[in-house]
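pasting input
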Amino acid sequence: MGRGWCSWGCFYGGWDEFFSRLRKKPVIKDKQIDRRWIYLPFAVLLAIVLLSAIAFSPIYCEWLCPFKIITEFQAPATILAIVQIAIFVVLFIGLVIVLPLLTKRRIQCGLFCPFGAMQSFLNKINIFEVRIDPDKCSQCQRCIRECPTFSMDESSLESGKPLMTCTKCAQCIDTCPKGAISYHIKGTPLKASPAVARALFLYPAFLLMSIIGLGTVGMGLWRILKLITTGSML
Amino acid sequence: MAKIKSILGYIVATLSTLIMLATVPGVMFFAEPLISVTGLTISPKYSGGEVVRTIDHGAYQTQVHRMVFDALIGERKEGFIQVNWTPLDRLPARIDEEIDADGDGQADFRVEVDTANKETTLTPYVSWVLRLEGTYKPEGSLMIRVRLRNPSQITR
């Protein structure tokens, strides 16, 4: 899947995605966002790898994960815990709620998440990719404006493929008015049947989504039902 | 050559579905053996290190782990020792025990634990036993971790 995990499996990314879809139009427009921010996830990845190796401790989990407040809210029993909770709350509200709302982009995923950065390297060896047919492309740049993780830019239109940070969400595919963008299997001709490539990608993608999601959703619904009927989720 | 690459591409793409089917549900079954083959182990920071002494009290056991000062290179100035009492349902209401942390036959600290509410009192006997880190009840046992200064790094 390469970085397809981010769009088809990641339950954290789902939060980003949700808030990025709430508004009809962005308040902070694409041109106001400096593209150099897309290198931040790689910087965060390098920093946490080095710091974690030195400290023998999961630095990202202990200090930087925006989703700690929804998975492991710890008791504010010490000053250290209060500082950590404050960091998690600020990161979650800022990166997952406010900025996606204002930009209509997946800010946490595209501009912060080090796991996404790590998986971007897997895109290099993954068999599936997104390609742009230069014969069909009208350079309207709608794909650049729509890509939720800033993985499309002018260089993508020239090279015929998005940046390595592409999460294969297919938003560019859906939005392209000329049908110039499609899933592609590496090694096959560029103009090989996009429908076949799409099907071969979507089968494992939907499988991943179902396996990860259905169990969690089922468990969640079960616990809600228990809460309603017995007054306790446990 | 182009045709071979194309055929290989389609084969790998098709196999992705089978790999996904095998990997995601199967990860619970073969993840542990696969990781063991690599020689990777859980950091003692989480596992508490190996059990070096077991004291049998009849109904329950005390498991004293090794002192953990592991660092990326060498040892840290401070670390911890983990002590487990198991099984949880056969522990007395109160545990009062002296623990030999470094295995020299001399008790290094005394711990008193109320097993119901986890209230714990630590009495160090040596200067390198610093403080109680916490009392926990993971998976059917009662556990404490005690913060230690590395005795091998104490300069006189």
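fyi Chain B touches chain A at residues 2, 5-6, 8-10, 12-14, 16-17, 19-21, 24-25, 43, 45, 70-72 (CB under 8 Å).
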